[in-house]
Amino acid sequence: MARLSTVTSWERERDARRLAAQQLVGPPADGVLQVVDRLLAVQAQDLRAARLAVRARTTGLTAADVDRELQERTLVVTWLNRGTLHLVRSPDYWWLQRLTTPQLSTGNARRLAQEGVSPDQADRGVAAIEAAITADGPMTRTQLREIVAAADVPVERQALVHILALSAIRGLTVRGPIIGAEQGFTLVRDWLGDPPRLTDRETDLSELARRFLAGHGPADAEDLAKWAGITLGDSRRGLRAAGADLEDRPGGLFDLAGREASHGRPRPKLLGGFDPLLHGWVDRTPVLGGNETIVTTNGIFRPFALVDGRAVATWGMPRGRVMLQPFGPIKAPILADLEREARDVERFVTAPH
Predict the structure, then answer these.
(1) Last residue of some domain: 170, 201, 229?
(2) Is residue 38 part of a domain?
């Protein structure tokens, strides 16, 4: 508690505004699309975690509701910000793909080389993926593994993952429908149709700045650059271009102009792994405090309990039941709230599809 006593009034307001922007304070979001629209891009290398991010910001939904939007093509998952899989609304795919994927090509080529995949083999693997999906429709990673291997392209260790990523970086594929227990890969042109009218880069950067702040403000150029995986220069360009829609906040931060400060108290919540609350800002200390074990050394973000905007425990479901691992004593009323959250998590993930 000593750390909290040193927090200034504007830092408390900053944290409250961020929780409201994240839809963790105030009325729950109306549905899956409203959550993803507000957050713009939800980290989804673990689709279970992306589903839980939606649960924490809504009420009464199930994991199947998220999957239904994937089936109906209103949401897609693909490699975008920072070269990581993200869940986005289909209309946002086009301009986010333009902004965040060109810079991924060098890193992708390096990783393919490390996995023993030559440029020619990578091209052949991508061509095999495109031909197979063109002929037979959406396919799972397991199915594509066989197809790429049959094209005499290495698929061992992480080779296949980086070939699949390359097909997404080139704008050929996205992850769309759920096929059995896996998410299928599909062709962008088949799944999303023709791209909308092309906008210029300045317009895209301005849209990025506004939409980022909608779900993460107050924040600064460094936060935006890190979150989107763009250069600091482009981040600053985007904020300048959106300037008429923004206002200055203390500490050199920006937020959407005219946004009301939230005076509600955040409800105790169980957040899933890789929750968006930990990905919008360079400094995670306001949420994590000294509990750095939530982020492991190999980059895994563990599920955690949030009370008054601070992490108070991690949690897991080792046998289908939520088990809390508190960092310290939790008062009985708060623990009761977290127990209700635990039952809701269990309901959310086990409800029939």
Answers:
(1) 170
(2) no
